[in-house]
Amino acid sequence: MKDIFVQSNTNSYHITVGESIRFQLEDYLKKDYSSILIVSDENVAALYLDDILKNFSDKPIFQSVVPAGEQSKNMQTFYQLQTDAINYALDRESLIIALGGGVVGDLAGFAAATYMRGIDYIQMPTTILAHDSSVGGKVAINHELGKNLIGNFYPPQAVVYDVETLKSLNEREVRSGYAELIKEALIADTDFYHTLLETDIYNLSNSELQDHLQRGIKIKAHIVEVDEKESGIRKHLNLGHTLGHALESDLGYGKLTHGEAVAIGLLFSLHVSEQVFAVEQPFEELALWLKNNRYPLSDIDYQTDRLINKMKSDKKSVKSKIQMVLLKELAFPVVEELKDDDIEKYLNSFIVRMV
Amino acid sequence: MKDIFVQSNTNSYHITVGESIRFQLEDYLKKDYSSILIVSDENVAALYLDDILKNFSDKPIFQSVVPAGEQSKNMQTFYQLQTDAINYALDRESLIIALGGGVVGDLAGFAAATYMRGIDYIQMPTTILAHDSSVGGKVAINHELGKNLIGNFYPPQAVVYDVETLKSLNEREVRSGYAELIKEALIADTDFYHTLLETDIYNLSNSELQDHLQRGIKIKAHIVEVDEKESGIRKHLNLGHTLGHALESDLGYGKLTHGEAVAIGLLFSLHVSEQVFAVEQPFEELALWLKNNRYPLSDIDYQTDRLINKMKSDKKSVKSKIQMVLLKELAFPVVEELKDDDIEKYLNSFIVRMV
């Protein structure tokens, strides 16, 4: 068990990855809170909520359980959490615990960021994918016109990551999480990238999993320390997300998991990087590994015009120009603004290559 | 025209109080924004929106006009502003201008704080009351169970206060605004308090009004610099607000204006201060001035039990104990936690005194 320390502009906090640490939560609280609200979803609550409750016998503790899935990141569920917090009489000395995947983390984090103009919260991720979203303080809900459009930068007080809670993940969830680990490796750590390419993600030891999570989180944490508000290098974390977000949204959430869509987006970034910089990229190598690990790469319904429009309305775009993170080489990401015509050309040749 | 400079933890900005400065907005923008959204209400838009539009001929400029009144500080209107911002393709380099009173400032400020996790905004207050809310970065909307329960601390990039826009205020609005000036004087500036007690608020020269606003804002700005997140002395600004908020909510918003409710709350604070510290307070003097300036002080329907419950659920309360700001003497505020029984006793004797 190792701690990673994050010092951001607005807050500093520890990220702890370990086994069974969900039973020692008191160790990770920075102060004596007046009351605690645990926010979770139906699936995670059934498995781990009782474990968390056992930590706190001496103070008022409440729970809000939301439906599982992306659709809970909406205005109605957000408002319901606010109602719960008021009805449970949470005050400015209360704590919210986000127990679950990225949806719960983003939703509960945004509720904490806005309840009475902001109270403390901690992240307890229960998916591999959430190693990414639980670090860095990005919290949000979706607007019906786009993902994560309503939110804040609001760092947690701690991230407590019990890898035992990852044992209940199914194959799709493992796949989804590893796509973000591959992304982090691609932008910052060539060694880690090669390690991952030798990994069978469905046969992981606890120590392998911990090691991968820690390496991914370190990359993320370092970037967030330098650029919390995403005015510079934090944009590199969007590698694979320009097309990834557009695909996820265009196909309808749930058709592809976030990570599955990002995996395709990563290949697209490598494809575009090859064209723009006229250098070879490990496109085929990564595509093969993704295929071996059963990522859905073929039979995708690419609607070129719609995808381009969605990429233009991404919140990372400025003046409706598409910005993409590309790789000059492994671990050397750059942000490039692309013309619509070029994007269309690259997308068409990418689709041909993916068949 | 004088500038007041605020250096908070997260941002620094200028507050400019002057005449006709709504026509020179370019001078107050910190950078070249990609587009601008002006948020206003129906009343203010009819009077001043065109003046603001004249400032910007060279870039995309949009408007969102919401219904006038407190009821616009709700989730639906907030969501509509987000929809507008998306449809107008605002990006992270865009600016929101909040043109109006406290409702517009709080609502548009919260929209800016959360749109794509936060874009720049400036405050253009058009009421006297908003001298208070436009400075300090508190932005929020109401929950149906309580005022300002959903929000952020998110400072503006500038406050541009054109006193000419105050000429259209009616008597109630002038009264409402001066209650907060009296509050600021009571907590921090005995001279200013005596000046105000010699003022007929319905016959003000432009220079008197500017002077009063600047003195009030200076007090507010100083407090916000020291304690942006309200963990200490910022609480002093709640003088008069414990009962004020409860009354406003219990009678139904609109029955009393915010300032009228705060005026009664100020008298209550002086009343309780007399009991708790056994010192004389300028209760009668202030009550007389308020009466002379036609503040509604009698014929108020005090529902003691309901008021106490509302005071307990105020977001400044901790563990459901009522905290009140009291005065040991003029310009010497302290925060005291009061027992429910004592509050009830003080409230009953206050009601008798107010008949």
UniProtKB/TrEMBL annotation, chains A, B:
Cofactor binding annotation: Binds 1 divalent metal cation per subunit. Can use either Co(2+) or Zn(2+).
Record's protein name: 3-dehydroquinate synthase
Gene name, Swiss-Prot/TrEMBL: aroB
Domain of life the protein comes from: Bacteria
HAMAP family per the UniProt record, alphabetical: DHQ_synthase
Function, in words: Catalyzes the conversion of 3-deoxy-D-arabino-heptulosonate 7-phosphate (DAHP) to dehydroquinate (DHQ).
UniProt: NAD(+) binding residues: 102-106, 126-127, 138, 147
Reactions performed catalytically: 7-phospho-2-dehydro-3-deoxy-D-arabino-heptonate = 3-dehydroquinate + phosphate
